[in-house]
């Protein structure tokens, strides 16, 4: 049984909307290199709609696939609609993720929301927000095994 | 598509000779080796033969070889078995920072019962300085457990010198985890001077589900599985006769072929090492440049993550492993890379290769040809790489 669903593999192997947007209206960068995932999402906004969206991701298969999926889900959507998309919804759209990946690598919607926040902050002259570090997993391996 | 196994630390294909040695004990000679009646005769003979084959590989006596269920079990038996047998003498154990989890988690479990342990550091190549082991010894040290070679970075330790230091300066037992090294480097217990040694036949073309444990005559440990008198009372439970027979056959092959195996592996290892280091920027080799196993390579590829590299290589038919957090199942990057001073972010780009007898120079060439495109693809979408490129332009 493969670790990842066919949809995850498709988005991993053929990621949609990879790249950066020059002069983006909002950028959301989220993650922690120590944990192995950094997602950076660029948005171009017109009339409160996400006109264009691109991403760059440093991370595992799930991190790349969720980034790709979230860009596909929100392209052309209003900011309000995009804000409602959750990490869980992204995972669901990919036919699920292995349990261990649900928390660590499933941050694409958060990165998108950060990009929207950054867009709003810039409009108010308060941006850009810059990279937001997520906390490290600092549990002891041995304790984790005991809990499992 | 051809499948290239560059992950032999996970699994090796059993040799035909091993399978043949196991075959009779599934059905035709299914008896229990402890039976006095005729059904026990052949299985008993099989156990005794396997024990001799294992003893010869390790340069031990037959009655010093115990079959367990895995390499991890052998490590648990060495550590917990010693701790429980010697707790009246002391409660302190010395290990290194780069031991396998079956060693590190054994001492951590014991720590919850009141034992204490010291993790000696390693240098940037992953070598343990015998002097550091000496410094860590206490009056109440009952055991020192240092692996013969790292299962991640391949660095081979000077176990002979460490054993000498331990025995000259303490009453502690000396154990070495040879689960990764046995079958790929010399594991002569007399030469090494150890009291206990663990080995894993599935790493050298034997079956899974069986481990080897060398226990020097006179060394006192407490069994972890109590019951009957199997395995000299050190490991109760009806013996896994087919697996043990297979383990014995794998040991005999290892002894006979060790030198040829090394000669076969070294040029492949070198071709991969040179090819990767020459064809890619910002890639580093981990582990000792010379004192390392002939079948292991560990690289850090900067700015990308190991699991995605592994998955792309898998797409091309090349099976590798990684020490990145995402591949670890516990979401922490390799403690071994951490111990040799590799930055936690860089450790995400870990690429772990372990070779075996089915690999060829053509495999190495194919890998070296395929890797740069994978790395480039992932770097192109890496925000870390983007940052570095922008900084370089300025």
Automatic annotation (TrEMBL), chain A:
Q: Where are stretches of biased composition, namely Acidic residues?
A: 136-148
Q: Name one Pfam family in it.
A: NifU_N
The domain of life for this entry's organism is Bacteria
* The gene coding this protein: nifU
**Entry's InterPro entries?**
NIF_FeS_clus_asmbl_NifU-like, NIF_FeS_clus_asmbl_NifU_N
Instruction: Give the span(s) annotated as Disordered.
Output: 123-148
Identify the species of origin. Candidatus Acidulodesulfobacterium acidiphilum
| The protein, known as | Fe-S cluster assembly scaffold protein NifU
Domain NIF system FeS cluster assembly NifU N-terminal spans what residues?
4-124
